Amino acid sequence: MSYLDNLVIVAPELILTITSLLALLLAAWSGRSGYEAVSVVCLFGLLVAGLSLVGAAGDGGPVFGGLYFADDFSTFSKVLIYAAAAVSILMAPRFFASDGLRAEYPILIVFAALGMGFMVSSGDLMTLYIGLEMQSLAAYVLASFMRQDTRSAEAGLKYFVLGALASGILLYGVSLLYGFTGTTSYRGIAVAMQAGLSTGELFGLVFVLAGLAFKISAVPFHMWTPDVYEGAPTPVTAFFASAPKVAAVALSIRVVIDAMGPATGEWQQIVIFVALASIALGAVAAIGQSNIKRLLAYSSINNIGFALIGLAAGTVEGVAATMSYMAIYVVMTLGSFLCVLQMRDAEGRPVEDIESLAGLSKTQPALAAAFAIFMFSLAGIPPLLGFWGKFLVFDAAVSAGLFPLAVIGIALSVIGAYYYLRIVKTIYFDDSAPAYAPANSMVENGLIAVAAAAVSPLGYLLVPFLALTAGNAARALF
User: Fold this and answer.
1) pLDDT band at 464, cuts 50/70/90?
2) What is the pTM (predicted TM-score) of this model?
3) What residues does each domain of the chain span?
C-alpha cells in the first residue's frame, strides 16, 4: 500500500485537522464576532469527516505499519463520536450567551473529536496514548471554559490533576507491556501473550486497564465524575457524558480484544468486577443527589457498568451488544442534557436543583414528557429503547455462560430505576415550583424531539439497522 493510499484511509482525521486549523485562523481574524462562522466551519468539518468514513471502512487498515486501523469497528465508533460532538456544538450558543460566545469552544470540540478518532482506530500503544492525550488536553480546557465561574475552574483543575494521574498509570502499564513483550503493537502483544502471561505482562495489563477505567469513569476510578459534571458548563458536561465515553469504551474493547485476546481469563475478571461495582455505586450514590447534573453523572457511571457486561462476555455478540448499548446511551444522555439546558428561572439563569422540576407537567407539558421518556429509557423500562440495550448485554452475558453476572446486573438495575422514577414523580406529582422561562430555541427543541422519538417505541424501527452495523463492527475485531 502506497503512502497516498494510507493518507486516503485516514481522511477523517485529515479533514478534522484541516477544519480545526481553518477554524483557528478564522477565530483569530474575526474575534468574538466570529463564533457563528467558526461553529459552521466546525460542523461542516464533522459532517464531511463522517461522510468520508464511507470510503475508509471495510478492509482499509491496518495502515502506517499497523499504527492505525480503519475498519467497521472504528467507523461505527466515529459516527457516534462525530454526531455527539456536533450536537454539543449546536446546544451551546444559548448557554454561553450570558458569558459571551467564544469561538474556542467548537474548535476544542473538534480537536477532542480528532483525538478520539485516533483512539478508536489505534493499532499500537503509541497511537493510543497520542489520541488519548489529544482528547484529554482539549477536555481539560473545556471543563474550565467559563473562566469567571469558580465551579468551572474547580472542575477543570480536578479533571486535570486526576487525568494526569490516570495518564501516568496508563503510561506505566504501556511501559511494562513494552518491556515484557518487546513491542507496542496490539498484534505483537497478542502474539507474545499466546505463550502464557508472565507476571510483568499481568501487571502491565492491570495498569493499562486501570488507566482506561478512569477515562470511562468506571469504579473505582470514578471519583472525578460527579464534581466535574456538576462544575463544567452544561454543554461541556453533555459532551463529556457522550462522545468521550464512546471513544474510551471502544478503545477499551479494541485493547482487550486485539492486544489482550489470549489473556481473556485475566482481563475478564477485572472487567466483571468493574462492571458490577460501577452499576452498584452508580445506582446507590445517585439516590441522595439533589443536583440534576450530579445525578446524571452517577447515571453515567451506572450505564458504563451495564455496557461493560457485554464486553465481559468476550464474544462477538458481547461486543456488538456493548456498541449497540453505547449508541442508545448517547441518544438518551444527550436528550437528558438538552432537557437540563431548558431549566432556567424567570431571569434566564440556569437552575440545576431537582426540586425545581416540580409541577413541570403543568407549565411545560412537552418538556415534562421528554424528560419522562429519557428517564424511563435510562431506567431500562420497556417499551422504550433503553430496555433493548440492557436486554442485549444481559443476553450476551448469558450466552457466554456468565449467568450470575446477568442476574446480579438485573437485580442492581432495579435499584437504579428508583432515582429515575423519582424525577418523573417530581415532575408530575409534586406541588408546583416556580415556572421555568420558556425556551424559544428551535435548535434545542428540535434536538429534544428527535432524541425523544429515537428512544421511544418508534426507535425499534432502527433496531435491524443498529444490529447490522454493530454486528459488522464487532466482527471486524475477531
Assistant:
1) very high
2) 0.93
3) 263-477
